[in-house]
Amino acid sequence: MPATLSRRIEGLKASSTVAFAGRAKELARQGVNVISMTAGEPDFLPPQHVLDAAREAIDLGLTKYTPSEGTAELREAVAAKFQRENGIAYAPDQVMVSNGGKQVLYNGFLSVLDPGDEVVLVAPYWVSYPAQIELAGGVPVVVRAPAETGFVPDLADVRAAITPRTKVLLVNSPSNPTGAVYPPELVRGFAELAEEHDLWLFTDDLYEHLVYDGEFVTAASYAPERTLLVHGASKGYAMTGWRIGFGAGPKKLVQAMNRLQGQSTSGANAVAQHATVAALTEVEKTAAFQRMTRAAYVERRDVLVEGLNRLGLSTPKPQGAFYVMADSSAIDPDEERAAIRLLDEARVAVVPGTDFLAPGRLRFSYATSLDNVKAALERIGRLIG
Ligand code: GLU
Question: Which of 25, 125, 128 to mutate to test the pocket of ligand 1 (most atoms within 8 A of CB)?
Fold first, then answer.
């Protein structure tokens, strides 16, 4: 009998955000003039003090294993960030560091889900949510947020999705892939539902620093004792490749996630952890960097949203993150065919909405230069004619 793969992995699809971003990078490497609006990857370098700290880490010989849960310095810096910016008091042992926000979240699902447990989440959703839930044996239960509300869900629909099997409510604002920023009363509503039904609340706050209109509030601030706060350096600090995520929550959960991480991957990259301490503690310099990047994203968003709507790829104006979910029908009502035409004929790479559960939509990331945004719109205009 031939050696087989596990049923778990046979059913697992590749991440389409990673796949489409990889395809665009490979085309560029081959010399094709492609504009990539695929991955949510800031085009900015991290701020200078972060780069300096990474060099310092190498010079100091900070190249050994760190504790599995992350260095004490970084966990203290993360706890101080949550106190300063979010008003939540976590002890450093309620904080852990992982290989990107993705691993924090996966550690979390593996630590709370038993087979058949349900997780309520909002669609369009980030492609890896359902995949991670299913890998952990759970069942994703989807609440749809329509374009007409700017992809903001109705709390009554979230309530209606809760069953006796529900174990986790998942909230993500600003949202990947829609850029929706939920009003504080809705975020509070998620927390109240979690309290009422005795559920875990997972909040993915990776886009906290990328809010352009409206106000960021973390669900963790309403129910810290039952919330896993998922965060990381990738988006707001432009540190994607450094692979530093951090999570905070009740000690029982964080300890479980640490046990899991100690047996699976151990601590995250030592040099990157030292650099992230600088990102979190050199507060003024980081704030100046974030003001600069936010202003750039606002300009790009406004140009992109206006341009796409003018071309008939209609989209609400997102309030945060750096994504736009545009209607594909001006190119092709089938979003996968539309994405292929965009790539093959216009050399603009995007991610089709399929795996975000957003049929008929294309995700454009504007984490790329304003010139690229303008050039992409011109190319799309020529394609549509
Ligand atoms: N989170 C980013 C995105 O959605 C990076 C790719 C990934 O990890 O999915 O594009």
Answer: 128
